[in-house]
Structure formats: structure tokens, C-alpha cells
Amino acid sequence: VVVLGAMLLSAPVFATELYLIGDATSAGWTIESAVQMYDTVTPNVFTWTGDLKIGELKFLTQKDAWIPSYGPVTVDEEMVTGDVDLQYREDDKTPGSDHKFKVTACVWYTLVVDLTDAEKPSLNVSVFYPSTMYLIGPAVGGWNWDDFGQEMNWEEEGVFTWKGDLKEGEFKFFEQKDFLATAYGANIDST
């Protein structure tokens, strides 16, 4: 009698594709518009870089189904620089398992989801805050950079201040003295 054995050398694959979904993404909660992550040269590792809005997000393994999915292990986990364990959600049977990440800063992110260890999937987050910020608009004199662009003071990562008199009118924040640079304004119309 001969007994043969085999050893599984690689981790099981839970996803061959991965997508971002949530109101923090450009897709919102429209599943058909879920944002695809890209697999890297390492199998079971997915990467995405871009802007996120303030809101929530999680990861889908298919563009046409809510389950299976990945989210944080804890409720309301904030999306900050560092490593976070992920929870694999296989079905709807476990109440309270549909956790989402909270995005609290509207900046540039790089997200790397590592599914190589099926027992401990993880997310690495890199948050990139602008190094400069400028204020411009009629509330500070006008839309001409040379005459009215106001450089703000850097206080700490992601925090800028400016002291001065505001007039009646609009203003916006720009990362550079350039109207083609990333800009920030009110998220609702003030009229």
C-alpha cells in the first residue's frame, strides 16, 4: 500500500478582482460603477491610488455582487496612514459584520489590499496631504494670483491657517498658485 500526500503551498485565493465602493469613492454606492483596484506583480495584492471624499467605503470581490466583501474588523475604522486588518464577509448571516471604513480627509490616498494570507487579510493606507495651500477669490480681493493669492501657513500635516479680513464674496482653496491645481470649496451651494 502506498500513501501519497500533498501540501498546499499557496494561500487560497478569495478574490481575483477587487473594487472600491462607497460614498467616499467616485462610484458612490452604485455597484455598477465600483472602482477597480489593480493587481500588482504579487498575486493576491491589489493597489489603487487617487482622491477620496469624506464618507465610507469597503471592498467588493465582484462588480455585480455585494457579497463577498472586505471591510474593517471594527466599526467605524478611520482611513489613516498605516496597516489595518480586514474582515472577510462571506454572507449576510452574521449580523453587524458589514463594517465600512470612515474617510475623514478629502486628500490623495494609496490603498494596498494584501490577501496573500487568507487568515489575516490586510490593508495598507498611505495618506498624502498637500504641502502648501492658497486662498483666492473676491472675499480676499479677486481671482488674480499675483495680486490676491494668499499663501496659508502650514501648521501640521493637513492643517493650514490664514489670518486676514474677508470681504463679502466667494473664495476657494488651491494646493498651488495655479487654477489647474487641486482645489477645495464648499460642498454645498451657499445661495
Give an overview of the whole structure.
With 191 residues, this protein is mainly β. Helix content is 2%, strand content 36%. It has one helix and 17 strands. Strands 1, 2, 3, 4, 5, 6, 7, 8, 9, 10 and 11 form an eleven-stranded mixed sheet that branches. Strand 3 and strand 4 form a beta hairpin. The chain is elongated, with a radius of gyration of 22 Å. Residues 2-12 have low confidence and may be disordered.
In short:
This protein is an all-beta fold.
Key phrases:
single chain; 191 residues; mainly beta; eleven-stranded mixed sheet; four-stranded antiparallel sheet
User: What are the low-pLDDT stretches, counting only 5+ consecutive residues below 50?
Assistant: 2-12
Q: Count every helix, treating DSSP H or I runs of 4 or more residues as helices.
A: 1
Total beta-strand segments? 17
How far is the first residue's CA from the last residue's CA?
85 Å
Q: What class would the helix/strand composition place it in?
A: mainly beta
Q: What is the multimeric organization of the chains shown?
A: single chain
Overall outline: elongated
Secondary-structure element order, as H and E? EEEEEEEEEEEEHEEEEE
* Largest sheet, strands/sense/barrel: 11 strands, mixed
Q: Estimate percent helicity.
A: under 10%
Rounded radius of gyration (Å): 22 Å
